[in-house]
Specification:
two-stranded parallel ribbon, 14 strands, 2 domains, magnesium, alpha/beta, cytoplasm, about 450 residues
C-alpha cells in the first residue's frame, strides 16, 4: 500500500475486502463487490465511492448542545500546513484501506483558513502539492472539490447573494482558489453548495438582485475554470433550508430552473443529497427522477436523516428499501453523469472508536450495493416494467399516441371525450408494486 508519511493512524485495520453476506466479519463487505458486473458495469464503475473529507477527518461530534467527543490522532502539529499533511496521510490511509477510488473536500477541510486571503492561498497551494504526491502514490483521485463559503462570519448574509459587494468579491476569490486547487489535483468535477444562499426575511431582501447575482457568479466561475482547461462537470447541490429559512437552491426542480434561467445547462448538473431531499419534503428517489428527467443526474451525496428530526443529521445510509427505489431510477437513467457517490455522512456523536468510521462506510457501501442488486433483478426478472408500461399503454396507440405526438387540439380532446363517455376506473395497483420490491429484497 503506497502511503506517504510514517504514521499509521488506523492501527490494526487492514484492507476491507468483499466476503459475501454469509461472512460474520464486521470489517468486510457483504454486498459491495467492486468487480461484480451489474447491468453492464462493475459496482466500482457504477458507484465511484468517495470519502467526504469534512465529516470523516474533521467532524469530531459537536452539535448545538455540546462540544466534540472524538479525539483524532491526526492534525496534531502546531504548524497548520504540517497538521494538514498529517490529516492527508490519515485520509489516504483510510481511502486505500476501504478500497475506494475517490475523495471530496471543501477548501478549508484541507488546511485551516489563515488571517489573510493571500496566506490562505499559500497554505492551500502547499497542501495541494502534497496531495498531488499522495494521489500519484496511491492511485486515489479527486471526485470533486468545493469551497466553504458559509461557515466564516463574513458569510452570515450569504456569499454570492450577499448584499455587500465586498463579500461577493471575497467569495469569488475563494472560489477561484478552490477551483485552482481542484484543477491542479485533476478533480473530475466541482460543486457549488449554497449553504447560506437565501434569506431569512423578505423585508430586508432584494430577491431578484440576489438571484441574478447567483447567475452572474456561477457563469463567472464556469468561464474562469474553462479558461484554465477544466473539462469536468459543475454541480449545484440542492438544499432546502438550514441554516437559511428560504434557500434559492431549495430542491432539484428549483435548481434546474436556476441552471436554465442563467444559461448554464451545458455545463451544470446536480449533486443530490438524500437528507436534503427529505428536508425538502421529497423522497430521495423523487429528486433523482426530477434530475434524470432533465438530463442532470450528475452525482450523489449518500446519507440519510432522522425522520423525527428537522435538521440535516447526515447519518450513514442503511434503508435498503429506500435505496432500492433510488437504484431503480439510477439504472433506468443510465447511471450518473460525471459524478459518483460521496459519503457525506458522519458517525454518531457517541460512536467514538476509529473503527466506527470503517463500519459506517462499510454499511453505507453495502446498502447501495444491495439496493443496486435488487433493483437490477426487479428490472430483469419481475413484471415491474411490463406493469408500468401497461399502466400507460393508452398513450401507445390511437388518440393517446396522437396526443403525445402533439397532433391534437383542445377541441379534439373535447370531441373524443363526448364520444367515449365516462372513463373506466383503473386501479393504480400501488400495493402490487410495493410487494414486488419486497419479494426481491
Amino acid at each position: 500500500m503506497a502511503l506517504i508519511g510514517d504514521t499509521e493512524y488506523f492501527k490494526g485495520i487492514g484492507e476491507i475486502m468483499y466476503e459475501g453476506k454469509e461472512s460474520d466479519n464486521p470489517m468486510s463487505f457483504k454486498f459491495y463487490n467492486p468487480e461484480q458486473v451489474v447491468a453492464g458495469k462493475t459496482m466500482r464503475e457504477h458507484f465511484k465511492f468517495a470519502m467526504a473529507y469534512w465529516h470523516t477527518l474533521c467532524g469530531t461530534g459537536g452539535d448545538p448542545f455540546g462540544p466534540g467527543t472524538k479525539e483524532f490522532p491526526w492534525a496534531t502539529a502546531t504548524d497548520p500546513v504540517e497538521a494538514a499533511k498529517q490529516k492527508a496521510d490519515a485520509a489516504f490511509e483510510f481511502v486505500t484501506k476501504m478500497g475506494f477510488d475517490y475523495y471530496c473536500f471543501h477548501d478549508y477541510d484541507l488546511v485551516d483558513e489563515a488571517k489573510t486571503l493571500s496566506e490562505s492561498e499559500k497554505r492551500i497551494q502547499e497542501i495541494v502539492a502534497y496531495l498531488q504526491q499522495k494521489q500519484e502514490a496511491s492511485g486515489v483521485r479527486l471526485l470533486w472539490g468545493t469551497s466553504n463559503c458559509f461557515s466564516h462570519p463574513r458569510y452570515m448574509n450569504g456569499a454570492a447573494t450577499n448584499p455587500n459587494f465586498d463579500v461577493v468579491a471575497r467569495a469569488g476569490a475563494q472560489v477561484k482558489i478552490a477551483l485552482d486547487a481542484t484543477i491542479a489535483l485533476n478533480g473530475e468535477n466541482y460543486v457549488f453548495w449554497g449553504g447560506r444562499e437565501g434569506y431569512m426575511s423578505l423585508l430586508n431582501t432584494n430577491m431578484k438582485l440576489e438571484q441574478d447575482n447567483i447567475g452572474r457568479f456561477l457563469n463567472m466561475a464556469k468561464d474562469y475554470a474553462r479558461s484554465q482547461g477544466f473539462k469536468g462537470t459543475f454541480f449545484i447541490e440542492p438544499k432546502p433550508m438550514e441554516p437559511t429559512k428560504h434557500q434559492y437552491d431549495f430542491d432539484c426542480a428549483t435548481s434546474i430552473n436556476t441552471i436554465k434561467e442563467y444559461g448554464l445547462e451545458n455545463d451544470f448538473k446536480l449533486n443530490i443529497e438524500v437528507n436534503h431531499a427529505t428536508l425538502a419534503q421529497h423522497t430521495f428517489q423523487h429528486e433523482l427522477q426530477v434530475a434524470a428527467n432533465a438530463g442532470m443526474l450528475g452525482s450523489i451525496d449518500a446519507n440519510r436523516g432522522d425522520y423525527q428530526n428537522g435538521w440535516d443529521t447526515d447519518q450513514f445510509p442503511n434503508n435498503v428499501l429506500e435505496t432500492t427505489e433510488a437504484m431503480l431510477v439510477f439504472l433506468k437513467a443510465g447511471g450518473l453523469q460525471g459524478g459518483g457517490i460521496n459519503f457525506d455522512a458522519k458517525t454518531r456523536r457517541n460512536s467514538t472508536d476509529l473503527e466506527d468510521i470503517f463500519l459506517a462506510h462499510i454499511g453505507g457501501a453495502d446498502t447501495f450495493a444491495r439496493g443496486l442488486l435488487i433493483a437490477d433483478e426487479v428490472l430483469r426478472s419481475s413484471p415491474y416494467e411490463s406493469l408500468l408500461s401497461k399502466r400507460y399503454s393508452s398513450f401507445d396507440s390511437g388518440k393517446g399516441a396522437s396526443y403525445t405526438a402533439g397532433k391534437l387540439s383542445l377541441t379534439d380532446l373535447y370531441d373524443y371525450a363526448q364520444e367515449q363517455g365516462e372513463p373506466e376506473q383503473i386501479s393504480g395497483k400501488q400495493e402490487l408494486y410495493e410487494n414486488i420490491l419486497n419479494q426481491y429484497s
